[in-house]
Specification:
alpha+beta, Glycosyltransferase, 5-stranded antiparallel β-sheet, 7 strands
């Protein structure tokens, strides 16, 4: 799966391990919703690509992009592990579990920094940390990495190995301690919108502990804060994935018993999100000063599809959806 499609130029960017990991999870979700066997067939093919082509056994890493394999991102690794586990849960194919376990152990061995945080990016093949850039959230680390740390939580559930739980808990403690300074975090309004996307990853990463007081409080305040920033910034620039993530976390936090559902806000967010869908079915990345940003982003699309389907289920009186189906 390419990082995104340039709708204005009619071409894709290079294949991305992270986006392909998201695709695996999304295809499993679509199979669960529709029962269409074609989604499961494509999910299996996607997981095989991740296990056999994306995982670089020589480097012991998941490269950011396959050609050249110059960097590995902590966040990408967690998304790939969760995608492999999503397909394994449905198929029982041990190849996918084995690769997920191997990648999860590499994450725990390679990315921790001496100060207790996680490096965002390592160079390959040396696995030396890349210098952090505080103006670019994806290169600076921070609370958003908790979403990918859920891979360790999921590995503990899949394998019965409680040792995988410890790095998730360590990342949770660090994320809760630093999340308060993550927003606004950028001097420009567009940069703040980009950081909302990352901040919502942090909120998603809280779900395994949503029933606990500290995580529940962070979810309540985080949802409120995100909604305020989104309303303020949207007239200038708005990302479809932020709209989708906010709607999703409202629903999952409600189902977890952590945050009562604000149905009026959720309905408004669902209407706003639906506006981003193209005639072909994908979702535009964003809208800037009233004009569409001409990228059809795979992640924006799968987040939006899931958010709108979950909202449809709520409107139809549907019940909770398992946390493991969070794409």
């Amino acid at each position: 799966m390419a990082r995104y499609y340039r709708a204005d130029l009619g071409r894709n960017l290079p294949v991305s391990a992270e986006i392909t990991g998201y695709a695996a999870s999304a295809l499993v979700y679509l199979h669960a919703v529709t029962g269409d066997a074609r989604y499961l067939e494509r999910a299996v093919a996607t997981a095989r690509f991740l296990a056999r082509a994306a995982w670089n056994a020589e480097a012991g890493a998941l490269p950011f992009e396959l050609e050249p394999p110059a960097f590995t991102y902590f966040f990408d690794c967690g998304i790939v592990v969760r995608g492999l586990l999503a397909v394994w849960r449905v198929t029982g194919d041990k190849e996918f579990l084995t690769t997920a376990v191997t990648a999860g152990r590499a994450m725990a061995a390679d990315f921790p920094a001496s100060d207790g945080s996680l490096h965002a990016i390592l160079t390959l093949p040396s696995k030396q940390p890349m210098a952090r850039d505080p103006q670019r959230w994806s290169r600076s680390g921070g609370c958003y990495q908790l979403k990918s740390a859920m891979a360790w939580w999921d590995l503990a559930e899949a394998t019965g190995d409680a040792g995988f739980r410890e790095p998730y808990e360590r990342t949770l403690d660090c994320a809760l301690g630093t999340a308060g300074s993550f927003l606004p975090g950028h001097p420009e309004r567009r940069g703040v919108m980009d950081r909302l996307h990352a901040f919502l990853y942090f909120l998603e990463g809280l779900l395994p502990r949503a029933e606990e007081a500290r995580a529940g409080a962070a979810l309540r305040e985080g949802i409120r804060l995100t909604a305020c920033y989104l309303a303020e910034l949207a007239p200038d620039f708005v990302r479809s994935d932020v709209c989708a993530q906010l709607l999703r976390i409202r629903l999952f936090a409600h189902w977890a018993g952590a945050v009562p559902l604000d149905r009026t806000a959720a309905e408004s967010e669902a209407r706003q999100l639906a506006e981003f869908q193209t005639a072909e079915g994908g979702f535009y990345f964003g809208r800037k000063e009233g004009a569409w940003v001409p990228h059809v982003n795979p992640v924006s699309t799968v987040f939006a599809l899931q958010a709108l389907e979950l909202w449809r289920s709520v409107c139809a009186g549907g019940g909770p959806v398992g946390r493991q189906l969070l794409i």
